[in-house]
Amino acid sequence: ISNNPGYDNQPSFYNDNLVLFSSTRNEQTDIAAYALNKDSIIWKTNTPKGSEYSPLKIPGSQNFSAIRLDLDGKQLLYEYKWKTGRSQPVIKDLKVGYHLWFSEDILVSTVLVENRMDLVVSNLQDHTNYTFQRNVGRSLHKIPNTALISFISNEDHEMILKSMDPVSGATRIITTLPEGVQDMCWLIDGSVLAGQGNQLFRYTPGKDNSWELFADFSEGEIGTITRLATNAISNLLLMVAEIPDN
Questions:
Q1: Comparing C-alpha atoms, which of 130, 135, 106, 134 is closest to residue 120?
Q2: Burial call 14-35: b when 16+ CB within 10 Å, e when fewer
Q3: For residues 45 and 64, is the Cβ–Cβ distance under 8 A?
Q4: Which residue from 121, 124, 93 is spatially nearest to 109, judged by alpha carbons?
Q5: Confidence (pLDDT) at 82
Q6: HSE (CB half, 13 Å, CA atoms) of 17?
Q7: Which residue of 31, 46, 50, 92 has the fewest C-beta atoms within 10 A of its own C-beta?
Q8: CA distance from start to end of the chain
Q9: pTM assigned to the model
Q10: SS3 content of the chain, % helix, strand, coil (to 5)
Q11: What is the block-wise mean pLDDT of the chain (246 residues), using blocks of 10 residues?
Q12: pLDDT at 243
């Protein structure tokens, strides 16, 4: 999709044809959209006084959300109009690092607090914010075919994948991520993918006792893999990876 010498990262599927991602141009990071059927990129934001990250489609809307970091250090989650790019804050008093739309009114996010991130669930209708866990990672996902989300708990230098009910706050340990891994994604069959180095590993809760090798790019076409994302039916996979110099 891209091989920008700058920063291309944090992709997500807007739909099965459009991919949103953060991309650097003119010394700022804007939101771009890649159309699979046209093999072309269009820019969705242009913010000279700041940069945008982690774009996601908003449920029940054509609009998308993204984190904006302004030059003065202000960092908030904004909603962007799809057609015009005009924006407004989603939550005005939380320094959101990463986010996930559980529904049109329920937002799950990691919020920057001192030198850590905390897991916060926000109800946008009644304007409440509840902190459910401290010291979490950046990877937030819905768990397919459930009413749960997953998050990464940073405990004693281990990254623990957990599930959570955003309504009740009930959590459960799923598994420990491979060493050095901070990112993962769910497939529609209920299994988890994670990248370690230039390999992909897969884990199926309730079935596997350990992570199993899923794909190997050791021939050198792909370097270190970080972010992962799939579309709704898991027939497309997005990867953020280094491209080795040949």
A1: 130
A2: beeebbbbbbbeeebbbbbbbe
A3: no
A4: 121
A5: 96
A6: 5
A7: 92
A8: 19
A9: 0.94
A10: 0, 55, 45
A11: 83 96 92 95 93 97 97 96 95 96 97 95 96 96 97 91 96 96 96 96 95 90 92 95 78
A12: 80
CB 61 within 8 A of CB 44: no
Q: Ramachandran region of residue 145, left (φ > 0), alpha (ψ -120 to 50) or beta?
A: left
User: How many Cα atoms occupy the beta-carbon half-sphere of 218 within 13 Å?
Assistant: 6
Q: Amino acid identity of 241? A: A
Residues in CB range of 67: below 8 A, 6 or more apart: 52, 53, 54, 75, 76, 77, 78, 96, 97, 98, 99
Rounded Cα distance, 237 and 31, in Å: 19
Residue 81 CA to residue 66 CA, distance in Å, equals 11
DSSP letters along 124-191, please?
TTTTEEEEEESSB-S--EEPTTSS-EEEEEEETTEEEEEEE-TTT--EEEEEEPPTT----EE-TTS-
What integer pLDDT is reported at residue 126 of this predicted model?
95
Residue 37 CA to residue 132 CA, distance in Å, equals 41
**Both tokens of residue 78?**
């904004």
Amino acid symbol at 26? N
